[in-house]
Amino acid sequence: MNPGADKWKLRPTERLHFACEELDLSFRQQEVWDVIRWWREGRSYDDMATALDRDGDEIAILLIDLVRSGRIEKRRGGCGG
C-alpha cells in the first residue's frame, strides 16, 4: 500500500459531518456492568437510561456496541425489553 494513500481520508477536501456529537458515548465500567445485568434481566433501554440519568440514545449505542463485541446477545424483545 502506498504510504500516503490515506492522507485524503485524514484531510478531506469536503466538510465532514460528525454524527451524535452532542451525545456522551463514554461510560464508566460500573455503568457498563449495570447495563449488561439489566439487559439480561429484560429491562428496556429507556429504563436503563432513566436509572443512569443518561440520554436513551447513549444507552442504545452502548447496547449496539455490547452486541457487536459479543458481551450481550440479541434478545427477543430487542431494546424495548
Which band does the percent of strand residues land in? under 5%
Report the biggest beta sheet as strand number plus sense, adding barrel if it closes.
none
Low-confidence region ranges: none
- Class by SSE composition: mainly alpha
Give a structural overview.
By secondary structure, the protein is mainly alpha-helical. The protein has a domain at 26-80: Arc Repressor Mutant, subunit A (Orthogonal Bundle), CATH 1.10.10. It is built from 4 helices and no strands. Helix 3 (45-52) packs across helix 4 (56-68). The longest helix has 13 residues, at 29-41. The mean pLDDT is 89.
Task: Describe the structure in brief.
This protein has 81 residues and is mainly α.
Which secondary structure elements does this structure contain, and how are they paired or packed?
Elements: H1 7-10, H2 29-41, H3 45-52, H4 56-68
Helix pairs in contact: 3-4
Task: Describe the structure using short key phrases.
elongated; about 80 residues
